[in-house]
Amino acid sequence: MTLKTTSVSDFPDAFADKRAETGVGYMDDQQDPVDMLLRLKDVRKAAHSAATFQSGAAPGRIVIPSEVAIRDTRQIPFEVDPPEHKSYRDLLNPWFKRPLDESYQQKLQAIIDDIIDSALKTDSLDVVSEFALPLQSKALTLLLNTSMDKAQTWIDWGTHVFRSDDSDLDGDKANILYDYIDAEIDKAMVSPGEDLYSVLLASEVDGKKMTKEEVKGVMILTFAGGRDTVINAITNSIAYFSENASDLQRLHDEPEIVNRAVEELIRYFAPLTQMGRVATQDTVVCEHAVKADSRISLCWASANRDEKTFEEPNKVDFDRKVNPHVSFGFSTHNCLGATHARQILRQLVVSLADKVGQLDTIDADENVERLGEFSRKVGFNRLQARFTAK
To answer: What pTM was computed for the model?
Structure first.
């Protein structure tokens, strides 16, 4: 679907009516139905109730669309419940907090500056494939502490490692990632370095050395979990600034608001629509019966527009005082890569404000998710835009 340039930053709330009526939606997913929780209160409560709504079901089952058919490796710590989850999380948190280090931020800034400078030298470019994808891939080299030349391989994979143009679940494409990770782990076993593969192989959890399968589970999550979500966040933010130049100028004039602005962009665009859980017992949500071993979804995108919490939820407001968004999840299983994603966006929007005088969208093709009774715009397949220097 091709859009007019007057509406690229408009991301309608697909769930408003159902959220107000019942608080629960429904979708089928490969004959494994999903009850979608739409209200912020219910989403947070279910996310916090790991004993009732588990993450440690069959590998791939809590992802929507389900990945049960394409993998049997458990993503760690994402698909592990307490108390084991905490042991993995305690090991991984220091590594994934490294984007807060000044030296890390300096390297990230060099990547961002290079990509923006290249954009300013072209007449126009596709923000998805020529800006956001390279930025996400090159930034990932910092997170993994590996060489920058690896990024081109990841760029060649495209915007999603499990999906292709004609399929929401592409097993052949997924195997490219799995084989790649297996090969990188094998290299690290033979010749350890300072990269994440090597660090994990040398680590212990609860007194036991991590297995190759556990390391693979962490790496699959690291590659897949922060790929199209970060790409969406970058692309959608640029689309917003192309139609709201005053907010970009404001970030230049008031850089102290950057954290608030980034949180608001993340709330509004919610780059990941939902994540599943599996009920461990019969229960009730919003007077709706949920049977044991059935799936629910924590619909982050709906919860982020809940009018009972957010004043004018369909408006981007950099002065929003109350912003308990759940774009990075909530409670035990909040996103491991949230620090990395936030840091990319913080440095990116400040750099855009400093370097870019005007952003013009030329053409756009929406990426619309079909979610049972709902259709939700999550980003773009293509966003052709022109960057003009200050």
So the answer is: 0.95
